[in-house]
Structures are given as C-alpha cells and as structure tokens.
C-alpha cells in the first residue's frame, strides 16, 4: 500500500494526518510542497489544490478526514 502526503510547514491538518499515520504504524511518503516546487506541480497535476493532499492507492483526499481514511485503509488491507 502506498500512502503519499503532500504537505506544507504551516498546515495544522498536515501535522494531524502525519501523526495519524505514525500512530497507526502506516508507512507514508511526505512531500513538502513549499520546499520542493516539483512536488507542488505534481500535486496540482494530480488534482490537489491545497495541503494536505493525501493519496492512498487510488483514493485521493483533499483534506484530512480520519474516518474516510480509516475506511480506505481497511479496504486496502483486506
């Protein structure tokens, strides 16, 4: 399972999402779109407009929604 979090330093929801994945023991890749403009352009190409933008396999989240993310994680791990 691949989890990618496009984040920015000022984003409280980004920190919450990252804490969630760490608490759950879920490996993730984090791309800071403020630091790396290529990741920012990639996020835009994938449909993200703000951070956090979270990709879990074929599901995209435009904000951190703990319950919906848990649903996708359960389906993906089944």
Automatic annotation (TrEMBL):
Taxonomic superkingdom: Bacteria
Domain Glutaredoxin: 3-56
PROSITE patterns to which the protein is assigned, alphabetical: GLUTAREDOXIN_2
Record's signal peptide: none
CDD domains hit by this protein: NrdH
Gene3D superfamilies, A to Z: Glutaredoxin (3.40.30.10)
The protein, known as: Glutaredoxin family protein
């Amino acid at each position: 399972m691949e989890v990618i979090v496009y984040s920015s330093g000022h984003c409280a929801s980004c920190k919450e999402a990252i804490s969630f994945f760490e608490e759950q023991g879920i490996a993730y890749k984090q791309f800071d779109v403020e630091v790396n403009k290529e990741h920012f352009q990639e996020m835009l190409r994938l449909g993200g407009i703000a951070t956090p933008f979270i990709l879990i396999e074929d599901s995209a989240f435009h904000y951190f929604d703990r319950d919906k993310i848990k649903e996708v994680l359960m389906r993906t791990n089944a």
